[in-house]
Amino acid sequence: MDPLERALRDIERALGDEAFQEGVKRAARHAEERVPHILEEHPYLRELAREVRRVKEEVLSNLDHYIEEAMESLGRMGARAYLAGDASEAREIVAGIVGTGKTVVLSKSMTAEELGLREYLESLGNEVWETDLGQLLIQLEGGKPMHSVAPAVHLTRERVAALLREKLGLRVPPGTSPEEMVRLVRGFLREKFTSADVGISGANAIAAETGSIVLVENEGNIRLVTGLPPVHIAVAGVEKIVPTLLDALKVAIVQAAYDGLYPPNYINVISGPSATADIEHKRVRGAHGPLEVHVVLVDNGRRAALRDPLLSEQLRCIRCGRCQWECPVWQHTANLWGGPSYGGPMGVVWTAITRGVEEASGLALLCLGCARCDYVCPVEIPISRILRSLKARYSKRITRGV
Ligand code: SF4
Question: Which residue of 10, 123, 171, 274 has the smallest Cβ count within 10 Å?
Fold first, then answer.
């Protein structure tokens, strides 16, 4: 089915779904109120966002150099680094490390979604569990994440209770509070964390200079995914590379702030497998954390997008999701508009980068052109202008009949 037709069919259904509309509206209203308040309380965040923009521009102007530096640094820290040209290569690399018949715990990663990693690893006979609560609910529902950082934004507490009851067999009678549901899921996932063979995470940023992966979170699941299993695999788009560890921390801080969750509960820094120097002060790898760390850097259209003056601007994106919260179209469609993994205004552009302009350009027609996304983006991506250019490319294609 044509991507635009599919999106329209799904959106039509969602427009008639009162619970979906209410869930998205409530979450968007909270986020819209929270972010300006955070920025007012902590004025240095705006300057940090400008710094992140500058850092990202520097990296994108010399991306191959930074990829090389990051891979060398990761290797120096004892991690194994890979560069995957496309989604299928990335899946094969991860599958080669994981193997079959394993238990895998995943922390929320839009790059993993882009690669279809969970489904692929399951098809190879692995037991795979999402550990971010929202993402676990999406796994149980069999849908796609509805926001970059709040994937289950469309689910009411009643629907969550039903999913936990029906799909996990948890005792969740009607009227169970969200606190109690979180406690039950915590108990369920605890056993998965401790028995997992492999933990897979994304990355908010990777420091080229030190080979460090930085991950920001609130639930604490990333700490367990990246700390408990003997093998940790991180998958990240090549645009996540920044020059230094300090830059990487700035990305994490800005991402949390513009997502409306500031300060974040945790920022994790991972520089290779766990190590100790407690015997004769000699560094030995493999202490309490993973014995192996693998980092799969994913291109999948990103370096080609660098040659496009408009698509290349999207590569500065830190996936804070603020353009989604603010978009009047997204507030009704959530990520049903945008493509198979990404969604909203930024999602259409990411679909163009990772799956091709042809697939994304029709989806751009749903943009109203209000440009609210441009005004709120911390790294000043001209999203509405990129969408306008995608619409023009679509019209050209249609009028030429190709
Ligand atoms: S495009 Fe800008 S506002 Fe939207 S997710 Fe990316 S960084 Fe955030």
Answer: 171
